[in-house]
Structure formats: C-alpha cells, structure tokens
Amino acid sequence: MSRLQAWRPPSAFPSRWMGPACWLALGAFLVWNAASLELDPARIQRGLARAGTLFAKAFPPDFHRWRLLLDGIVESLQMATLSTALGTALGIPVAVLAARNVVPLPVYAAGRGIVSLGRTFHEIIVAIIMVKAVGFGPLAGTLTLTVNSLGFFSKLLAEQIEQIDRGQVEAVRATGAGRGAVLLFGVLPQVLPRVIGLTVYQWDIHLRQSTIIGIVGAGGIGTTLYNSFSRYDYDFSLAILLVIIAIVAAGEWASAWARGKIQ
User: Fold this and answer.
1) Could you tell me which residues come within 8 angstroms of residue 248 by beta carbon, excluding any fewer than 6 positions away?
2) pTM for the predicted model, two decimal places
3) Backbone dihedral region of 131: left (phi > 0), alpha (psi from -120 to 50 degrees) or beta?
4) Is residue 250 classed as helix, strand or coil in its secondary structure?
5) What percent of the chain has pLDDT over 90?
6) Are 93 and 180 contacting, i.e. CB atoms less than 8 angstroms apart?
7) For a tag on the chain, would you pick the N or C end, based on fewer CB atoms within 10 A?
8) Cis-peptide, bond into residue 60, ω within 30° of zero
9) CA 16 – CA 34 distance, rounded (Å)
10) What is the DSSP secondary-structure string of 90-129?
11) What is the mean pLDDT of the chain?
12) What is the 3-state secondary structure (H, E, C) of 173-232?
C-alpha cells in the first residue's frame, strides 16, 4: 500500500528551511538600508509640511514673465531637434559597425564598444562633463543629447540590421556590387522604416531630457526652472512646471501621431 503525500506548491528553494531564511535575510537587509539612509518618519513629516508651504507660495502660477518662459521653451525644442538630427547622422554608421552580420569581428567589437560607451553614463553626468568642457548654455545640452542619442539609436538599429533578410543582401552582392552598394541597396531599404521610427522616438525622449539637463547649466527650460527656484520665485517655478508638462504631453502626441503614420 503506497503512502499518500499531501500536495505542496512548487518552490524555488530546494530545502524548506531556505525560504524563511532568505525572507529573513531580505528583511534584515531592508532594515539595515533604512537605518543607514536615515529614513526617519519625523523628518519625512517635517518635509511634507515644508512641501505644503512651498506649494502654497507657488499658487497661483505666475505667467507674467512669458517671454522668458518662451525663450526657454524654444531653446529646449532647438536642442532636442538638433541633437536628434546629429545623433541619427552619427548613429547610422555606428550601427552598421556594430552589426555582426555585415562587418568582420574586429570592426564589430569596435562598433559595440562605441555603443556601450555612449550608453554608459546618465545624461546628467554627461551634461556636467559637457558644461565643464564647453561652458554653460545650449551647446553643452546639444552635445549631451547627441551622445545619449548615439548610444541609444545605434544599439537598437544594430539589432535591427542583424535581423534583416540575408537573401536580399546576397542578391545585391551577386551582381558584383561593392560593400557600399550592398549596404545602400541590400541593407538600408530593409531598415529604413525602423530608422524613421527610432528618429521620431528619439526626438520624443530628447524633448523630455532637454527640460532636465538645464538644471546643471546645459541650457533649455531647465535652466530657467533652476534659476527661479534659486530666487525663491515659486509661483514662476509652478508656471514653468506646468509648461513642461504641456510640452511633454504635446511631444508625446506628436510622436505617437508620427509613428502611426509611419506604420
């Protein structure tokens, strides 16, 4: 007579004692993190009270300095558009170098290195470096977004090139075409819709980022926001934040509309 065993749900742990031990260790780790970071409930309560005072001073928003606001918005749009164009122009050849199916292994390794380097640092860190290199202003912001675009755009386009139909490439190569002609007539037609879609998506991302990197002095509406906070002009700061929300929403709509047209 066989013994009946109660059914137990499958577990990720090989032994029964390991589950409670892991949860206990995780709980101890979270408590240690909270203690190390000084997550004091009293400080949080005082911070909420100060935030309430700040919002009370910020309301109603001040739109009287609309010319200053408009200058920041236009500068952010210019930075986003120009950096997207530069990033796309530089990103296409880098993506080709980073696609394993169209270049030799040493070239592929170098291309992947460029892509990895472009994606290594957050845009705020790159913006700080650019501000130190070329000074405050939109030039630093444009260069920052271009570097960011190079890593992002090249990586996604390289992955798309690696998935193309080899038959079309071989057909062009069978005509005796050189490497440039193969890329132009065998590869580019297959990835062109993806290039357009990524460009639109990248512009949408740059529009958001251009409102942030100005906080470290890289131009755009972010610089205007930082200066207003520094002068305790909270009502003007609220007006800027509302405009940033409107810009991002409009950019999201424009990007979705453009992607819909492409598809």
Assistant:
1) 207, 208, 211
2) 0.74
3) alpha
4) helix
5) 5
6) no
7) N
8) yes
9) 29
10) HHHHHHHHT-TTTS-HHHHHHHHHHHHHHTTS-HHHHHHH
11) 83
12) HHCCCCHHHHHHHHHHHHHHHHHHHHHHHHHHHHHHHCCCHHHHCCCCHHHHHHHHHHCC
